[in-house]
Amino acid sequence: MSFFDSEVVQQEAKQLFEDYQSLMQLGSEYGKFDREGKIIFIEKMEDLMDRYKIFMKRFELSEDFMAQMTIQQLKTQLGQFGMTPQQMFDQMRLTLDRMKLEIK
């Protein structure tokens, strides 16, 4: 069975995409949130980022050709911006850490 044929992979990809879209839509109102709302938003973003890292690790560990191609495409796309996947996650972490500092 192909990596992308897995019901677990399909469900997690769908859920990650939906959660990301919801958070981005919600995030457009971030400036209007009270302190507690900002904390909850940041926690949800951290959770999403952790889930995405795990999802990407599954791709990396898979021997499936399409999974490996997906990782290569991500690396190529990020490379156009002078960034690796790890640097992308590091940058996301820094952004969330800065957001936390701003609400204290």
TrEMBL record:
InterPro entries from the UniProt entry: DUF1825
Superkingdom in the source lineage: Bacteria
Protein name: DUF1825 domain-containing protein
